[in-house]
């Protein structure tokens, strides 16, 4: 409670304007690859070259924003999105849902109309903007008999008299689920929420030859379906891209751009790739997690003996420029069968048996040195930049790391439009817990990793951080971090600055 009081007092006195947020100063670095620099280390460093990305605060939403491929929400739900925002703050959004992981067989479409008002910079998720929205209408159009009958049963149970006498359900017809004029709201039948509009961020990515890609990040969807109605986002979904400034090539972009509720996008079926996990994989962007966590990830998998190593670099800012701490973890894994619940995914079981932590700022040092004896390395001995083994203390309680630890995972491999190999790892539970039981296995994915090196040689024993992932003193990492720990770190961070 006292920490909360202090944190809010800092927040209330730190900025005098609505958009005055403590954002990291972006420095300009050369993005060229150094001679003899390993590709993975180059890509890690490249992620830190914040000069390539600018965030618009307050964000400009006006325009047409589209998915760049088939998305997976917890459930699972397979969908594509097409959102249009107008200068008068009105918006029109399409959500297209599918029966398959290729987004090739549409089941129904939602057309959503309303109004959005940007409020202020978020003090919870740095770099984001909070917004209010009001829904005017939500309509549904079915594209097949099976899903239509399933939803019709739920609507008839929750909205008695939804269809007037003599009417019947017909595919290709718009049915109004929500109307602000009549007060009707039958959206619960399809589990609809639009809280993603309450947290927004717009980024511009600058590439060679003057190319610009604009991305719109909207709030994340809770991994527990029963919590969606009340959850207010603190993380993001997979970003939408501007229809005018998107990645090239993008086979899905034009298809989604031209679609509407009567003509849903039908994306081409991609070949299923064999799960070849061996090699080195790196984040493609500065990632954000619910409860204010920014990080990049670096993994090495050794398929020959089914062992793995991972580096989790944690930051306090949305462009991953201000390091907080790093966690190195290692262990072994078991490959399971294809997922019967999430089409296109493969089940794994991972065991974490060893971990090390490196504090990268004074706030983290203070937190670790205040931990109880024998719960996180040697209490009182932590200092900035010093790596310490935490295996012998069975993890680090204050950071939420428990050893040994088992996680039930979901993996997927795809090729992107540039034929790069991408690895999708299961999305972390929104409540900060761990998928430590089979029933908690993810049904959706985190932001993808890209393969930066092929088959990795099996080390004689797990290598140390210096030889694997650490490229310079600006990199950091971790397994999971509880909201309470995040709050303490935030308080210490603001005290330090």
Automatic annotation (TrEMBL):
Residues 39-269, 270-460 form the APCDD1 domain. Residues 1-18 form the signal peptide. It is found in: Membrane. It is a single-pass membrane protein. Keywords: Glycoprotein, Membrane, Signal, Transmembrane. Residues 425-476 are annotated as: Disordered. GO terms for cellular component: plasma membrane. It holds the Pfam family APCDDC. Residues 428-442 have a biased composition (Basic and acidic residues). The keyword Transmembrane applies. Residues 443-453, 461-476 have a biased composition (Polar residues). GO terms for biological process: negative regulation of Wnt signaling pathway. The keyword Signal applies. InterPro entries: APCDD1, APCDD1_dom. GO terms for molecular function: Wnt-protein binding. Transmembrane segments: none annotated. PANTHER family: ADENOMATOSIS POLYPOSIS COLI DOWN-REGULATED 1, PROTEIN APCDD1-LIKE. This is APC down-regulated 1 like. It comes from Latimeria chalumnae.
């Amino acid at each position: 409670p006292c920490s909360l009081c202090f944190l809010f007092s800092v927040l209330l006195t730190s900025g005098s304007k609505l958009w005055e947020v403590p954002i990291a100063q972006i420095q300009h670095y050369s993005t060229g690859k150094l001679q003899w620099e390993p590709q993975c280390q180059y890509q890690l460093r490249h992620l830190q070259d914040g000069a390539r990305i600018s965030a618009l605060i307050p964000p400009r939403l006006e325009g047409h924003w589209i998915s760049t491929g088939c998305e997976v929400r917890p459930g699972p739900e397979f969908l594509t999105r097409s959102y249009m925002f107008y200068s008068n703050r009105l918006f029109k959004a399409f959500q297209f849902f599918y029966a398959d992981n290729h987004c090739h067989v549409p089941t129904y479409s939602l057309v959503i109309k309303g109004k959005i008002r940007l409020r202020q910079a978020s003090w919870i998720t740095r770099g984001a903007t909070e917004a209010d929205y009001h829904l005017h209408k939500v309509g549904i159009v079915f594209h097949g008999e099976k899903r239509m009958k399933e939803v019709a049963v739920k609507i008839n149970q929750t909205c008695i008299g939804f269809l007037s006498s003599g009417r019947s359900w017909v595919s290709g017809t718009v049915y109004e689920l929500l109307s602000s004029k009549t007060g009707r709201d039958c959206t619960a039948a399809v589990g609809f929420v639009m809280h993603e509009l309450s947290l927004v961020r717009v980024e511009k990515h600058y590439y060679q030859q003057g190319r610009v890609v604009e991305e719109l990040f909207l709030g994340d969807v809770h991994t527990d379906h029963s919590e969606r109605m009340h959850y207010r986002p603190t993380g993001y979904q997979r970003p939408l891209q501007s229809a005018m400034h998107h990645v090239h090539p993008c086979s899905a972009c034009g298809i989604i751009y031209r679609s509407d509720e009567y003509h849903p996008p039908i994306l081409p079926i991609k070949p299923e790739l064999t799960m070849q996990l061996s090699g080195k994989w790196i984040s493609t962007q500065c990632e954000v997690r619910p409860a204010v966590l920014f990080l990049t990830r670096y993994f090495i998998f050794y398929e020959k003996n089914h062992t793995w190593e991972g580096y989790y670099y944690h930051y306090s800012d949305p462009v991953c420029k201000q390091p907080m701490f790093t966690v190195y973890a290692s262990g072994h894994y078991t490959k399971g069968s294809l997922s019967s619940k999430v089409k296109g995914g493969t089940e794994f079981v991972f065991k974490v048996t060893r971990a090390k932590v490196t504090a990268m700022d004074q706030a983290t040092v203070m937190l670790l040195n205040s931990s109880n004896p024998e719960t996180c390395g040697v209490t009182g001995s932590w200092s900035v930049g010093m790596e310490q083994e935490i295996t012998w203390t069975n993890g680090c309680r204050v950071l939420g790391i428990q050893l040994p630890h088992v996680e039930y995972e979901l993996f997927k491999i795809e090729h992107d439009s540039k034929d790069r190999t991408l690895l999708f790892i299961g999305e972390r539970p929104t409540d900060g817990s761990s998928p430590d039981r089979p029933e908690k296995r993810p049904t959706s994915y985190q932001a993808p990793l890209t393969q930066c090196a092929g088959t990795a040689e099996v080390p004689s024993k797990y290598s140390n951080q210096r030889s694997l992932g650490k490229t310079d003193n600006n990199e950091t990492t971790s397994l999971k971090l509880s909201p309470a720990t995040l709050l303490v770190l935030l308080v210490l961070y603001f005290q330090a600055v």
